[in-house]
Design brief:
two-stranded antiparallel sheet, little secondary structure, single chain, 1 helix
Length: 68
């Protein structure tokens, strides 16, 4: 039996930014980028940056169980 990934999941490319992200210590939105993915296929949350941005849409937030 063959099942297409799109039949059992929601696939999203995430948010794209038009320019380089500048880290802001007091930024309210934390951003996971490809560089934050380690060799063990886990996200290293110690180094993700915060930016100033309007709150993201609910669909762009990572939830427990999501695969990045």
């Amino acid at each position: 039996m063959r099942i297409n990934l799109e039949d059992i999941s929601d696939i999203s490319t995430g948010v794209t930014f038009r320019s380089r992200l500048e880290p802001e210590v007091s930024g309210g939105v934390r951003v996971i980028q490809m560089k934050d993915l380690g060799t063990n296929n886990r996200v290293n949350l110690d180094n993700i940056i915060s930016i100033h941005s309007k709150p993201p849409k609910e669909s762009n937030l990572i939830k427990k169980g999501d695969i990045i």
